[in-house]
Structure prediction request, 493 residues.
Amino acid sequence: MKKYIVALDEGTTSCRAIVFDNEQNIVGLAQSEFQQHFPKPGWVEHDPVEIYSTQYGVMTEAILRSGVDISDIAGIGITNQRETTVVWEKKTGKPIYNAIVWQCRRSVDIARELVKKIPAETIQKKTGLLPDAYYSATKLRWILDNVEGAQERAEKGGLLFGTIDSWLIWKLTNGAAHVTDATNAARTMMYNIHDMKWDQDILKALNIPECMLPEVRGCSEIYGYVNISGVEVPIAGAAGDQQSALFGQACFEPGEVKNTYGTGCFMLMNTGKEAPLSSNGLATTIAVKLGDEVQYCLEGSVFIGGAIIQWIRDELGLIRESSDSEYFATKCKDTGGVYIVPAFTGLGAPYWDMDARGAIYGLTRGTGRNELIRASLESIAYQSTDVLRAMKADTGLEIAGLRVDGGASANNFLMQFQANIANVSVKRPKILETTAMGAAYLAGLATGVWDSKEVIRESRVINRVFEPAMEADERERLYAGWKDCIERTKSGR
Ligand code: ADP
Prediction:
């Protein structure tokens, strides 16, 4: 019985590969960074060839380090930075341009033109997304416009498009499979998440030849085989990074939410068979497709999450290490009425005020370092609560617990305050590599390593549960104070 799964986790700055055994333990890991290219202000590119070779390198390294026999590997799962766009030659596999990264703003004008042809609300209804240069569609249009002869070559079938999952699967299978999974397709802004088809109106408005798009498949099935040292290993799972983390946190039921506390925070809520449109500026997207069954989710993010801790560390010099924040925050009993609103780049969901800027409120002569540090951590929890409340409002669903991961989820003070202020139980798993874990689950389900989602859920190991421990009055008083500070931070006042 084959019992190992290799997860390939292709992120924005590095490629990782993790070998898991069938008890969800990590038995091998390798990671390597790749280069970021910033050809102009606001432009971000990666070299797809470097991504492939780096990913291949860490895959073989992780397998070798694990000591696992390749013939004992049941399958490979892939998870990746989403939206990032690659176009390559069908015949040679050579990219015709660098990958345009999700962060890149170069196609803003194309997005603006698109909404003149198809209203933003219509695009949101079809794709779940509010039109933006962030998604793949306008990046693809930019490549077709700016690489000589590309449009014509694409129309004749000579060029292929893919997000990074698609590119890696094509390369790893030696060109045998030009596919993507439904979660990655859902982030291109060309995919109709209700019809589960490439959207003809959007393709037409952007003049994108359908023949260059990958076939859209489920997240847990065999797409093709990779030859590793003479052994044919199936690629059996794929999902975009955030959806993979949602699955990796075993958020299989409507109302289950995961939040990743990194530089920013990424929150996703499983909404089951429903795909509710948000009135709070959240994205509706595909959570997972297993066989013919599709689950949807709402997605929202906090721009400045752990970054506020970096700021008090690097700019204010209040702490030496991010993790020191926990010690100082617990040295005072509260912030004494101090709130920090870290709107460094504007206010995101559910406020959407890009001109707002950060502020500190409630300073008194007694405010000290401990209070400021505590208020910084609390700001992460308040902002996450705002997104959580928006999700609740958009769906009418009760929050069935919050599962957490990411660097700052290690902070026990922050997690307890999060439980208190959102009034939800917060679960932190033992393995914080939830993104890779999700891809592993998907590939393991397709290859019989795990029989069912239930088996996975039951065998997960939780590191700690933080239960709400704050009186309702106190919670409402603190949260009302936060909302008041948000109002005072908004631009145009
Ligand atoms: P990313 O994937 O966005 O680079 P990580 O998941 O590695 O982020 O988390 C790093 C972020 O978390 C940084 O902003 C850092 O300041 C913050 N962080 C890390 N450890 C802690 C901690 N113990 N307490 C608070 N913040 C932390």
